[in-house]
Write a structure and sequence with these properties.
Blueprint lengths: L5 E5 L3 E7 L2 E9 L3 H14 L5 E8 L5 E5 L9 H11 L4 E8 L6 H18 L3 E13 L5 H10 L3 E7 L2 E8 L4 H10 L6 E9 L2
Antiparallel strand pairs: 1-7, 2-3, 3-6, 4-5, 4-6, 7-9, 7-10, 8-9
């Protein structure tokens, strides 16, 4: 299995606007971590822009962009949600919700015009913000009595990972952070030295320097 140690995303909301034949397309971008978080933002935007004709959106989640959803919100099928999604995928960002709010200007744009307008609104929002690269780390706990912690620390130092002694569930051991691509090799080293195993705790990320 291949692992990705980094991903591109946004650190703050962004906004951009595109106009065509009287219609306004307001592109809104939000960094999100879950689908539920995205759903709440969509509800909030619909309330704030209750007079708008459409609230179309696309959502990408996961370091590998594996979760993808979109909505045309009553626009002709394939003219809004998918163009929004394509822009997000084309720049390689994830953990991002993009919503385009349309205020209808009275003139129909046709299928090509809608596809162009929804995509351009997202591009305008992206142009107003910074895309950052984040490095992924998985946090693990290794049960280990105090007498043997020096040997475990020696192994961890070979992989240049962050670590510190900890007590989890009243059990002494070591907490450490490691990139996903390193865990298989590191786990083999830990088990080969007679430690009982490792327990996954959580996944974190930090801005890549």
């Amino acid at each position: 299995m291949l692992f990705s140690d980094s991903f591109k995303t946004l650190t703050q909301p962004a906004e951009g606007e595109f106009k065509d034949r009287g219609s306004r397309f307001i592109g809104l971008l939000f960094p999100v971590k879950t689908e539920d978080e995205a759903k709440e933002l969509i509800k909030k935007i619909k309330k704030e822009h209750h007079a708008a004709a459409h609230h179309c959106w696309a959502l990408v989640l996961g370091s590998d962009q594996s979760f993808q959803k979109s909505s045309d919100d009553r626009e002709p099928a394939g003219t809004a949600g998918k163009p929004i999604l394509r822009v997000l995928l084309s720049v390689g960002v994830t953990n991002v919700l993009a919503v385009v709010v349309r205020y209808f200007g009275g003139k129909l744009l046709g299928v090509p015009g809608l596809i162009h307008a929804y995509g351009e609104a997202v591009k305008e929002a992206l142009n107003s913000t910074e895309i950052v690269e984040m490095t992924l780390y998985d946090v693990y706990f290794v049960p280990c009595n105090y007498q043997n912690q020096h040997e475990l620390i020696r192994i961890l130092k070979q992989f240049l990972v962050k670590f510190h002694p900890s007590t989890k569930d009243n059990e002494p051991g070591i907490i450490f952070e490691v990139k996903p691509s390193q865990i298989n090799q590191l786990e083999k080293q830990i088990l080969a030295n007679a430690f009982s195993g490792i327990k996954w705790v959580q996944q974190i990320s930090s801005k890549k320097k």
